[in-house]
Amino acid sequence: MKVKALTTAMLFATLPATPVFAAALDRSGQSISAFLQPDNYFEAGLSVLDPTVEGREAGTSETRRNIDDMGEDYYFPSAALKLQLTDKISFGLLYDQPFGADAKYHGENVFVSSAADTVLPQAKLDALAAAGKAKVEAFMKSPEAAAAIGGLMKQGLSQEAATKAVLNKASEPLVALGKGLADANANLGQGNTKVEVDTQNLSMIFGFQPIKNLNFYAGGVYQTIKGSVSLRGTAYSLYNGYDAEIKETGDVGWLAGAAYQIPEIALKASVTYRSEIEHDVDATESLSVEAALDRNPAVLAGLGVTEAQIAAMKSSGKTKITTPQSVNLDLQTGIMENTVAFANIRWVDWSNFSIQPHKFGQVSQAIGGLVNRPNGFNLVEYSDDQWSVNAGVGRKLNDQWAGNVSVGWDSGAGNPVSTLGPTEGYWNVGLGVQYSPAANYFIAGGVKYFWLGDAKAQTGAQAGGSDYVADFSDNNAIAYGLKIGYKF
Fold first, then answer.
1. C-alpha dihedral sign at 442, 447, 453, 459
2. CA distance 471 to 453
3. If 0-12 CB within 10 Å is exposed, 13-18 middle and 19+ buried, where does residue 306 land?
4. In sequence order, which residues have a C-beta less than 8 Å from that of residue 172 and are 6 or more positions away?
5. Which of 142, 166, 187 is the last residue of a domain?
6. Per the UniProt record, which residue ranges are transmembrane (predicted)?
């Protein structure tokens, strides 16, 4: 097997359709394959995803309506520059968009607001009314009520009038609660539940090659993150009308790894660790029912919220978002002349990931007792780590053309999952082709078809339990990739 015969296929083993639809918020797969190319090298690529994610109301939802496609199309670019500065020192700049989300609900369902929405489910409203009525009835049978009635009778009121006056006084909190809930219902959000999250990574890598077969590398990573989310519909109860806008913020992390290769047989293996990156962001948050709650203190009082919790709901503070650590293992080897087999195994630490914007968290702690979450709950969280495997075969067809086929599997990050990304992993198949007009540059394109895993969707208040509000099944996605590469 000659390395010349394998050059094109070796390049193509890294191309082109990136993961683009993976567990949780994972997008690019964070490959460093461009940095491991020989000599000086540049590449630029673009990936596009067209998902279909449909479902049906289920679980705790009071209705069973269909949920139209909520997966939005999106695209993201990537680029890389690798320089071999000396025989033993290399340098690289890698740009990608590793994590993201883009979704919007449509139609008539529990994720889209309507005029009939209530701040609490009807069953909860009925329970509050029954509890309030029982409390009033118990008071009217108490010695305190008898004393109050007697006092009014001494002032000249009849027993009937005195009893009615005491009853009205005892019922004031219940009446105020009903009035306040009506005001809150009239001030719930309008529109659709939607989310958009974008990240950008710029990795600066230095490599050291003590011998031609080994490459040790490490570097810094600058990452930016921004996003927005709107919660609408009865699925989110009091949060129906919650909005958060996270302005773009940047912070740093690091990566390190090692690679081993035997070019004569097209053998290449690498392992890369990327650290978590912690962001302290300013999130602009609003809750459409907040003004109604301020006007009607009986609502929060009736829900058992203390004055200290109400003060905390109005406080301001930073929001912490920590993007997860990950490990990539890349393998490649020649299996016959002009043919290589390749595989990528990826682990991402999603089980320790969560997002709790400041106001969202304070409100969740205030009302968490209503849903058995006395310590509050998160906007988004995941229960499992992500594991994914992509493997395939690349073959050089002639001096200008090469192709590959691949299969992929992703474990997902737990089920039930967030309503803002209701799929659990996938299986996929991919096809790609590469055209090399000259030996030092190429153009490649590819397509992948994804069978997305069925998932039950739960709100943040339900996370960690078995309750859910919708069921998503039989969904799919198509991804397209285009890349150019140049050796110099």
1. positive
2. 11
3. exposed
4. none
5. 187
6. none
Token pair of 139 as six digits = 């008071």
- Taking the C-alpha atoms of residue 364 and residue 458, their distance in angstroms, rounded to an integer, is 15
| Cβ-based neighbour number of residue 245 at 10 Å | 15
Position 45 in a domain = yes
- The CA-atom distances, in angstroms, between 59 and each of 121, 235, 307, 458 are 14, 11, 34, 9
Residue 16: pLDDT above 60? Answer: no
Provide the token pair at 131. Answer: 């509890």
- CA–CA separation, 237 vs 5, rounded Å? 63
Q: Is the peptide bond before 121 cis (omega within 30 degrees of 0)?
A: no
DSSP string, 52-110: E--EEE-TT-S---EE---BPPEEEEEEEEEEE-SSSEEEEEEEE--BEEEEE--SSST
User: By three-state DSSP, how is residue 26 classified?
Assistant: strand
Which residue bears the tokens 């002639």?
A: 398
Query: For 212-255, how does the pLDDT look when each residue is reduced to its tens digit (9 = 90+)?
Result: 999 999 999 999 999 999 999 999 999 999 999 999 999 999 99
In this structure, the answer to whether residues 68 and 90 fall within a common structural domain is: yes
Give the pLDDT confidence of 87-110 residue by residue, as tens digits: 999 999 999 999 999 999 999 999
Q: What is the pLDDT confidence band of residue 5, given thresholds at 50, 70 and 90? A: very low
- Find the mean pLDDT for residues 440-469: 94
Q: Which two tokens stand for residue 486?
A: 């140049």
Domain count, the chain: 2
Average pLDDT, the chain: 91
Q: Could you identify the residue written with the tokens 């097209």?
A: 266
